[in-house]
Amino acid sequence: MKTHRFYCLLLTFGLLTSFYAQAQKETDYWYFGSRAGLRFKDDNPLIDINSKGRAREGCTAISDSLGNLLFYSAGDTIFTRFHTKMSNGWSLHGHQSASQSSVIVQNPYSLNLYYLFTVDALGGSNGLKYSVIDAGAMFGQGSVLAKNIPLITPVAEKITAVDHRYSRNAWVIVHGSSTQNDKFYAYRITPTGVDPNPVVSQPANAISHAGSFPNNNAIGCMKVSPDGRKLALAMQELNLVELYDFDDETGIISNPLRITGLAKAYGIEFSRDGSKLYVSTQNTTGVDIEQFNLEAGSKAAIMASRRTALGTKSIFPSSLQLARNGKIYAASTETGINNRNIKVLNVPDSIAGSKSFSLGNQPLNTPTTTPFRTSEQGLPNFNQSYLWVPSFLYKNQCSGDVTEFTMKIKRQIKTFYWNFDDPDSGADSVSFLPNPTHQFTKPGTYNVTLTAVLLNNRTRSTTMEVVIYPSPDADLGPEQEICVGGKIRLNGPEKMMKYKWSTGSDSASITVRKPGTYWLEVRSQNGCVSHDTITITPLQNAPKFFDKYLFETCPFRDVTIKPIVRGTNHRWNTGSKDSVLVVRREGWYALTMNIGECIVSDSVQVVFKDCSEDFMVPNIITPNGDGQNETFMIRGTLPGEWHLRIYNRWGTLLYEDKAYRNNWPEKPPVDGTYYYILQKPDTNEQYKGWFEVAH
C-alpha cells in the first residue's frame, strides 16, 4: 500500500518576521538632534527633513492615533505640526542637554489636551515642571495654555512615562537629586489633570543621586518597560544600571537589581516584549550597546547574560529608543560619513549574536539634504505604553500542517481576538482561544492579527505575515512489479534541500532491483517535509512467448518452435541458443530469454499423435547412439527406391547408393551441414537439399 505523509519542521518565531503594530501611531514622528527627523510608516521609517528643532540630548514628539504629527520639543521650545513655534511655546524650563529633557502625555479623556513634562540638566533648580497644550487650538497649530507649572525640584535629568494598569490614566516618573537623591516620584495624570501628590518610592539600598548642582550623578536615562512591569535607570558617573519592579497599578518601585561594571552607562531601553534590557556604555574607542536577558532566571543569571549587541565609534554616549516597528534605534555621534546615520537593532527580542539577531543603519539624510542632519546624543522620549503591542509565536508553516499560535504576553489583558486572514476557512478564520491552532486552506501569505484589550480598556493589535509554504510532492508513483533481473528507477521531486531513502541513499533518485517496500522523505528549501512509500512486488503476469502451448505432431515430423515476442540471449532447455528450435521428440521445451532488462521464461509441450507417414526427407540426424534419429531416413517410401548422393560443404561426394535403404551413415560423420541429391530412376523425380548432423 502506498502512503503519503506531509509535515513541517519549521519553528517560526513571530517576533522574528514582518509585523505591523496597529492603532499605536502616536510615536510615528521623531524629531531629534540637529534637525534630524524620521517618520515611521508600517515597518519602514522615512527620512523627514522638515524639523526646525535642535537638541543636544533629550527631546520628545507626539502624533495623533492616526499618525498625524501634532507637535515636538526639546524641552525649551515647542514646534507645531507646521514646524513653526507654537503660540506661547517658548522659554520652557526643560534643558535640551538633559539626558531626557522632556516627555509628552495625553489627557486620558481628551483628544486635544496634552501635558509636556520637562526636567532640568544636572539636577538644576528648575526641576520637574509641566506645561498644558491644546493641540487643536488655532486651526490645528496648537497653543500652550499654561507653562512651567512646578512639581518638584531638584530631580535627575531622567524622566519616563507609562499607562496605568486599570484606568486610562498615566504615570510620569522621575528620580530625585540632591536631598531627594534616593527616591522615585510617580505622578499620576488623570482626566482632571496632573495630580501634584506623587507616589514616592524609596527602595532599600537604592543608589544615591546625591550631589549639588551641577550634579553629574543625575546624568543617564530611565525607562519603564512597554508592558509596565520593569523600570531601569543608568547612572553614568557610577558606571552602573539599576533594574526595578514597577507596579503600574500603584506606582510603587521596588526590588532593585544593581548591575555594575557598565562604563559610563547612559542610554536605557527594553525590547518590546520586556524580555531584554539594553544599555549604552562608553569606552576609549567608542560606544557599546550591551544586552541583558531578563528571562535568564536569577539575578546572578541576568547579570551573567550580558552580551555586546553593537559596537560603534560614537564620541559621546548614545540614547536608545524603541520604535513602533519593534526595532531599537541608537543615537550616533560618529564622525565622517557615519554621522549621517543612526544604528538599528533589528530584532531586539532575540539573543544578541543569535542567528535571528541582526543590525543595521538608518539614514537621516537624502542625497540632496543640506545641511546634513545628525542625531547627536538624543532620541525622542515617549510614553512607553504606546510602544507595547501583543506578540505571539507560531510554528508549522507547511501546507496541510496545523499551525500553532502562542501568545507571548506577560501582562494581564482583559480580552483578545485572533483573525487568521483566511476567509476560505469560514468561521475558523477567527478564534478567541489564547493559544489557537489553524489549518490554512492553501499556501500563501496571511496577515494574522492578534488584538488585545488591556485592563484599562486600551486596545493594541499586532499583524504579522505568516507564510504557508507548499509542501513538496514526494509521490513515488503507483505500485509497480519487477521481474527477475529487472530494475526500476524511483525519482524524488527536484531541487529539495534533503533526500532520505529507506536504502540509506541521499540522492534525488535510486534504482531498485528486487521486490520490497521503499520510502522517501524529502525536505524543501523552506523546511517542509514530505514522505511517500511504494511497494514493489514480483512480476505476476510475464509476457507469453508462444501463440500455442501444445504441439501435436506425427512421430516422423519435425516441430518448429518459435517465440512470438522479441528477446535476446535465448537459452533453451535443450542447450540450444537459437531463437528458433526444431524438435522431433515429445516433451516440454522451455525457453529463457532477456526482454528488456527482465529475464523471463516460458515453455511449450510437444506430443505425438497417430497419423499415416508422408514422404519426408530429414533436415537433421543425430547419430549419437541413443537409437533416435540415427540415420538419414527417408520416410513415406520403400527402401531401395531412391538414388542418393551426399556431399560435404565443399562439394566433395562422400556417399552414393543407387538403391538407398536408409542406412547412412555406417560410422558417425563429423557434425556439420551436408547436401543431398535424391533421384528416382523410374519417374526421374529429383530432390535437392541440405541436412545437419548433430551428435
Automatic annotation (TrEMBL):
Residues 415-452 form the PKD domain. Residues 1-23 form the signal peptide. The keyword Signal applies. Transmembrane segments: none annotated. The keyword Nucleotide-binding does not apply. Keywords: Signal. This is Gliding motility-associated C-terminal domain-containing protein. It comes from Adhaeribacter terreus.
